[in-house]
Write a structure and sequence with these properties.
The protein is an alpha/beta fold and 235 residues long. The chain is built from 10 helices and 10 strands. Strands 3-2-1-9-10 form a 5-stranded mixed sheet, covered by helices on one side. The protein has a 5-stranded mixed sheet with strand order 4-5-6-8-7, with no helix packed on it.
């Protein structure tokens, strides 16, 4: 991505927090009035699970972005987990344990109620798969895992230091923590990411974590990057 004459607003893990996302999308265009040129919103993944309105968040991301902005949505590990469940690679219990229950509630589905109605676990899974809209599934399948420029990397969890970006393993981009954190001072670009909740985003070496745990703090965070300068914006 060419960031010349471009302002980027990266938004951390939404996790079903629809109202907080709307709040940010009211503040970002106001902040952007001071800039000319291209304006891009980069969503860092984990739109679903844990919070109350996952389905509504996906509907919103499928709709046009704020006027005058482009929007790029990256994949998070929770989107991949939902797809793995729908495709039969992850058990229902494993997905429910990491927040899938709240996602199903947002579609009007109570998995325990379904389990009491149908003796067959396969039938329960079939009923669940019928409820999830096709456009939501297609959207999740379309999500890239990385966006980068000459100076910045936008990714859900982080990158494995010492490995070229084109050779990064997708599992690392979606899940890495300690190996990435420990080498933050060795990075050759600034990495903006989420995945690991923090109280207040602070620059650590060349990485900035903007996941402020919106589903339990009520605070969704964005960072505006213009040239090499950043500013935090909270819902």
């Amino acid at each position: 991505m060419d960031m010349e004459d471009t302002v980027v607003y990266a938004i951390g893990d939404v996790h079903g927090c629809y109202k907080e996302l709307l709040s940010l999308e009211e503040k970002i265009p106001l902040d952007g009035l001071q800039f000319r040129g291209r304006k891009i919103i980069v969503m860092l993944g984990d739109y679903i699970d844990r919070g109350p309105q996952s389905a509504r968040v996906l509907d919103h991301l499928l709709a046009p972005p704020p006027k005058g902005f482009l929007r790029v949505c990256l994949a998070g590990n929770h989107e991949v987990a939902m797809l793995n469940y729908l495709d039969g690679y992850l058990s229902r219990d494993s997905w429910l344990a990491i927040g899938g229950r709240e996602t199903l509630f947002s579609y009007g589905v109570d998995p325990e109620r379904l389990s009491s109605l149908y003796a067959s676990s396969d039938e329960v899974d079939r009923r669940i798969r019928e409820v999830i809209p096709v456009d939501h599934i297609d959207f999740l399948r379309s999500l890239p895992v990385l966006l980068c420029s000459e100076k910045f990397v936008f990714v859900h969890a982080g990158i494995r230091p010492g490995i070229d970006l084109v050779a990064q393993d997708e599992q690392d981009l979606l899940n890495i923590r300690d190996e990435f954190f420990d080498a933050a001072h060795l990075l050759d670009r600034f990495v903006v990411h989420g995945h690991t909740p923090v109280d207040i985003p602070r620059l650590d070496g060349r990485r900035l974590d903007i996941d402020t745990g919106a589903f339990h703090t009520g605070r969704l965070t964005a960072v505006r990057i213009a040239d090499k300068f950043g500013k935090l914006i909270f819902s």
